[in-house]
Structure formats: C-alpha cells, structure tokens
Specification:
The chain is built from 11 helices and 2 strands, in the order αααβαααααβααα. It is an all-alpha fold. The relative contact order is 0.18.
C-alpha cells in the first residue's frame, strides 16, 4: 500500500463505528475486498505501534467471536459433521490432550503473520511469508521463537525507517491495490485449506474437502477484514479468542464425561 507523506495521517473513518456499522462494513468488504480506510488515524511514525495495538474493546472482539461460534456451530457444523461421516474423516485433536498453547498462542501468531500481516504490507510479505512457512513447519519451541524474534525485529527496522516509495515501487503498489480483492480471497482459501491437515481420512472424495473447512473459510474472511480494518494485533487476539471457545467446550465435555464415569 502506498504510504502517505511523512507525518500525514492515513484517511480513517470519521466517527466511532457502532456494531451495525462494522457488520455492514464487513459484508461490503467481503463483496469487494479493498485496502479501505482504517478505523483510526495513523501516521507513518505511529503505524508500527498502532498496527499491533488492538484498538478495539474486548466486548467487541467477544461479539465477533460469538458470531463466529454461532455461525460455525449452527450453520456449518451440521454440514461438516455430515460430510465427515461420508468421508470417514476424524479430527486429529485428542480431547484428552488438548493443545492449549498451540491453539491460543502459536497458531494465532504464526497463521496471522503468514496469511494476513502482508495484506497491508505486501513488500514485507515477500520475505515474511517464506519465514512463516518455515515457522509453521517447525514445532513450537526454540526454533520457532527465534524466527519470531528475528521477524519482529526486521519488521520494526523496516517500518520505522519509513522510506518513501520510488516510482517503480508506487507502480507496483498500484498494481497490488488493483488485484487486492483476488489476493485477499486466495489467502483466505489457502488458510482454510491448511486446516484439512487437522483430519485423517479413509474414504474422502475431492468434492467433500471444501465442505470440511467451511468454518475456517468464514473465520478467515472475518480475520482478514479485522486485520485490514483494525490491525494485526486485533486479528491475533480475535483468532486466539475464537480458538478458546471450542477448546473450552471440549474440556468441559471431557470433564463431564469423566465425572459421569463415561470416559
């Protein structure tokens, strides 16, 4: 995205957005993804900090998480269950050994940096995405932590320097903005497809696979809009909050089964 002149704020929404305003803005964004105005004014010198600060209340984030839980449970849930039975698919997560750290810390950080950070910073994405693919391949631990430390340091150095783009860079950024809608949807579909690795199959056919990741597809749309609108910090927090719901439900169900002597 082409930067404004130094110390001049980017265009932003003129007033505080209500829940209804955000809901309408989300659907308008999904129909035609664009690098819209942010929900608050930023300058090149403050963009680094504000991009990581959520800039949204916990109750508003909880509201979006509740929307995602409701749609995924009541709309997509029955579809996924039906297709899973036909495909002989079982989820790889063991209810007796829930991956709290992976779901609440590592997955939000790695997946948001891989699929959504570069949406507003395509130049950084050219080297960030390969590093995040490596981090995704590594198990959570020292190696992944080191990659994250290097990435954050590199992003800070690049964004704090704030070089004004040259002629070629501005032409490239205009092309990026023109095709942003396609890039956005490809990133969402790739994010959803990644979650097919959460299943093991016995008799799946190719047409069944997209239905199994409908929840991740819709969640990716919301997270992508949140990243563009509110910043990467808000997207990471919403991702972690969304993952917390199913994990807590599985944990409570396991405790109830154990207390009833059924597990």
């Amino acid at each position: 995205m082409m930067n404004p002149p130094p110390n001049q704020p980017e265009p932003s929404y003129p007033r505080r957005m209500t829940w209804l305003d955000e809901w309408h803005d989300f659907w308008a964004f999904v129909r035609r993804p664009r690098l819209s105005r942010r929900c608050r004014q930023v300058t090149p010198r403050t963009a680094w900090v504000l991009d990581w600060m959520p800039g949204i209340s916990f109750l508003r984030l909880l509201g979006w998480a509740a929307i995602l839980w409701g749609i995924n449970i009541f709309l997509f849930g029955p579809i996924v269950i039906g297709i899973s039975k036909q495909a002989g698919a079982t989820h790889a997560v063991d209810p007796a050994n829930l991956p709290w750290l992976l779901a609440l810390v590592w997955a939000p950080l790695v997946e948001e940096m891989l699929f959504r950070y570069g949406l507003r910073r395509p130049g950084i994405a050219l080297w960030l995405v390969p590093l995040m693919v490596l981090a995704l391949w590594l198990k959570p631990g020292v190696g992944q932590s080191l990659i994250f430390a290097l990435v954050i340091l590199a992003i800070y150095r690049v964004t704090s320097a704030n070089p004004m783009p040259g002629v070629r860079a501005r032409q490239w950024l205009r092309l990026y903005r023109r095709w942003f809608w396609l890039i956005f949807h490809v990133s969402v579909l790739t994010f959803a497809s990644l979650h097919l690795f959460n299943f093991t199959f016995t008799s799946a056919q190719w047409w069944m696979l997209p239905a199994l990741v409908l929840p991740q597809w819709f969640t990716g749309l919301v997270l992508g809009w949140m990243r563009v609108m509110r910043g990467i910090g808000a997207a990471i927090l919403l991702h972690a909050l969304f993952n917390f719901g199913p994990l807590m439900a599985a944990w409570l169900a396991m405790r109830w089964l154990q207390s009833a002597g059924l597990a």
